[in-house]
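User: Please predict the structure of the protein below. I'd like the answer in structure-token form so I can feed it into my own downstream comparison script.

Assistant: Understood. Taking the following sequence of 172 residues as input:
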Amino acid sequence: MTNNESGMTNSESVYDVDIDSLQGGSADLGQYKGKAVLVVNVASRCGLTPQYAGLERLHERYAAQGFTVLGVPCNQFMGQEPGTSEEIAEFCSATYGVTFPMTEKVEVNGEGRHALYERLVPTEDAEGHSGDIRWNFEKFLLGRDGSVVARFSPQTEPESAEVVAAVEKAVA
């Protein structure tokens, strides 16, 4: 096995990454094998926070076809996710009715970048951007095999034509 630029071996996938759930304990990414997953770094105090509503609708619309959204709180962008796990969970549930799973708060850029994002950031979006996450609500679509099949900028709405088309292709 050889190491890629992220330091992970080529045989490792997102399913092998250890990350805790927002409520504590393992988020067990292996449970998503065979599903399409939209991984999104989220924040509660951002101008893009209303995207939670679209993410929830997308989650509900395609859940029966083997799809889920996975929210990953991050406080690296102007401190827009300062809350505790309990505060984040309460905000998401009470304000946006979020039912999709959420992980613990992590770093998505820099030396402390979580292993999940080490695996995701080499993927380019439609404009050719790869590498560091630019802002809250950057989105990565994983195919049923765990490979990254699409990356979307933070400004791309969850229910935009390009996201919906990619999700429909991933669950087909």
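That's the full token string. Confidence is low (pLDDT under 50) at residues 1-11.
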